[in-house]
Amino acid sequence: MTLVLRDAAVNLRGMPLTRPLIRPFSVSVQPGEILTIMGPSGSGKSALLSWIGGDLPGAMQGAGEVLLNGVNVIGVPPERRRIGRLFQDDYLFPHMTVGENLLFAIPAARREVRLEMMQQALADAGLDGYADRAPQTLSGGQRARVALMRTLLSGPAAVLLDEPFSRLDQDLRSTIRSFTSDHIRDRQVPAILVTHDRADVPPGGRVLAISAQGDMHHV
Amino acid sequence: MRTLATLPLAVVLLLPLLASLLFIMPGVADLDSFRALAEHPQFWGALALSLATGLTSTAVSLVLALVMIFAARGKNLSSRAGLFLAVPHVSFAIGLAFLIMPAGLLARAVALAAGWTMPPQWVTTQDPWGLALTVALVLKETPFLVWTFANLLAREDLAAGFAGQRAVARSLGHGEASTFLRVIVPQLLPQALGPLIAVLAYGMTVVDMALVIGPTQPPTLAQLAWTGLSDAESATAARGAAGVLVLCAVVAAILAAASVVLKCSRPHLHRFYAASPRPGEGLGGAAQLLWPALLAVYVAVAAVMLLQSAAAQWPFPDLLPNVSTLRAWTHLLSDPRPVMTSVVLALSTTACAIAATVIWLELAPRAMDRVMTMCALTAVTVPMLLIALGEYRAFLALDLTGTAVALWTAHAVPVCAYVFLLLARPYRAYGTQWAAVAAGLQQGRARFLWRVKWPMLKGPMWAAAAVGFAVSVGQYVPAQLAAAGRFSTLPMEAVTLSSGGNRPLLAVYGIALMALPLGAFLFAARAGRSRWSTP
Q1: pLDDT tier at B114 (50, 70, 90 boundaries)?
Q2: What ipTM does the predicted assembly reach?
Q3: How much is the pTM?
Q4: Could B173 and A77 be called an inter-chain contact, meaning their C-beta atoms sit closer than 8 Å?
């Protein structure tokens, strides 16, 4: 799986003029790679991810193409794009147990198979025996790991990470960062990470930065 | 000082409520009246009708409201739903009856297309199955639930979480419908428990609407109890009181049964939540039309009342009256007492409720909020029939029946409850930093309140006032009991007229009853608007 952005741009709709937030740029993200996009708040980097994921608010407008293995997904509803999302907040559903949160993401299969996948994911996250716990009883780091596992269980063709580490305690961040990049590399999923924290950039990873004029350039 | 500030609201809300519940108690031990009730030939039929209309209307309203919220796709419907709420139940029932009765506007429209020359023979209002009452309840309760859900979805502390969870669910492969049913609804419904209970309790115990459009042979249990209560003979009145108690016990039993059913179905529910992603689209275009259709019904209800109010002669199947008159309107103007009584009561109780609530929220210890919230929730969820019965007994014991004090108190209790419930959250959420800023500018507390805090809170304050006004104008049951025939308000006149034959006059009262709260809502929306909002 490769994720390609071709002439991607984000504009802020306005009267009378539409103002460009991110000017057209193209990039290709390889399987297992995490591409980092950096920019100050308000630079449109979260909006770029929303556009790729398919839920850009009406005040903004995207342009260009998002190609997953050569197929443009613009115009496809978000649930059919197979693009996983992680946010600052883990958004674990509070009315479901940890196990149910994971099952919610597992595609249709025999019940035993789905349960087995859920248990395996918990084991991978070092959370054996947590299936019946309420998400509210988990620590921040545990919740972050469940959220990542949930996204990966849905079998995404690409993953978008919207500052997923910024709410975590300082001492937890590096553990969760490497946990995240390890799993994304293992599954050979292309990923885009947006952040304003240099420390979030995975070792040796490519970085794009948004200039004040909205131009995207390599760092 | 701080405890003293709890007094105004305690006197107008807590005290009457406690007195009411206290004076209900002796009736519970009056076994003879329960026996008399059970032996009444219409009792079982009436109970069945109450169950059917109450449960059906609640279930249908809930489903319709959820479908409308889903179809709105995140558009906030709360401000528009608020206008529907302003229409009093009695007024709506009168207009709906004019619309659906055999010679009503609906039948005339069909007649025009189908070539009928005579009104159809079927019974469409006061039908023996309570269908007209159920439809009226559904049309009135659905916008209330839509308003409740829309407000919850827009609430600052919930909205961001819902938006994020929705984005995550869809990125995991769940379509809009699946996301709504598995993620949003299970979190929305527990938050709306109070309003849902209120809808059920209202549907099972409604009197005024049932008197206008409900079945008569037998009536619903609420009507049966009501006619008993108003009887001069004490045994009959006691039987009516027993009917009220049985009805409330049935409501309580249904709630208990519902909670057991919910508990037992938990495993199934959770298996449903944890089901695999379904990208399906869900509802089609028809769902989008439900909300405009509801609006159309309300417009039609208002329009038919206007037509009927001016109709001197209106032969079937003409769509418009062929002789019009303003006699009914001049009649209303020649005896303005019911209108004036309603307006004075609504203005005074609302002003008092706003003042008492603000005094409470500004000065009373925060720890006591829970008590008042519980008290206000009791006043709006416990059937009004029960509270009114207790108040009536208390007024009798204090020899206050038929006095202005009794009438005013009967109106003030629900008004204060609604105003408190609506104002408490925005008032408590007001940031403390503003007071600090004002104090830093050497401004006293009074100046801070008048010049900073209240102007900033004028939106929710005017909105609460509009609801208070509408609640007061719509009161029938407690008002009728407390007035004991010595006062007349708009809903009392309207209900009395509904059993007579003067349709234009009934329509005029229906319109007046609708116009007052609608006017209050429009005025409040204007007055409460931020000075920076675009017109």
Answers
A1: confident
A2: 0.94
A3: 0.91
A4: no
